[in-house]
Model the fold of this input.
Amino acid sequence: GFRLPDLVIAALLGFPFEDTGEVIALSNRMGSTVDGADAHTAAGELQEYMRVLVERKRANLGPDVISDFIRAQDEDPEFFTVRSLESFAAGLVFPGHETTVVRMDFGVLYLLNDAALRDWLMADPEGRIDQVVDEVLRMTSAHNFGLMRYANEDIEIGGVTIRKGDLVIISD
Done:
């Protein structure tokens, strides 16, 4: 389920298709549950990639989200006050890519495991696909295991010591 979302996020955000491998690799490193330091480094590298992309795009704006961000910032320099344009653009890659992949994979899995549902969809794909997509979105979560964060400092919670750099998964 990776290739289609890779291409869609590239088109939506406006980075070159040939950069998709690099951008997605950085996004994947950002989601690492093994190495918080590398996840942080990857986030910085992706933000730097976006900084360079923004500078290139300023000279040749297109019909994409990053170009829209540039236009908004040009119209109102205070548009990005909490985070930089580059940081915001980098922050869109991970959720825009990963959640789509996960949901598409779950949708395929449900259809492969439920012949009646698959047959029902195939009897009228154009008329029924929206209902199937709605149901897949309702039944699944793109964050089945919670929100990943890394501890910024040592802390003790409920008698358990969480060390700086440890992975913490926030789940309800």
The two ends are 27 Å apart (CA to CA). The beta strands are 147-150, 155-157, 160-162, 167-170. The mean pLDDT is 85. Residues 85-113 form the longest helix (29 residues).
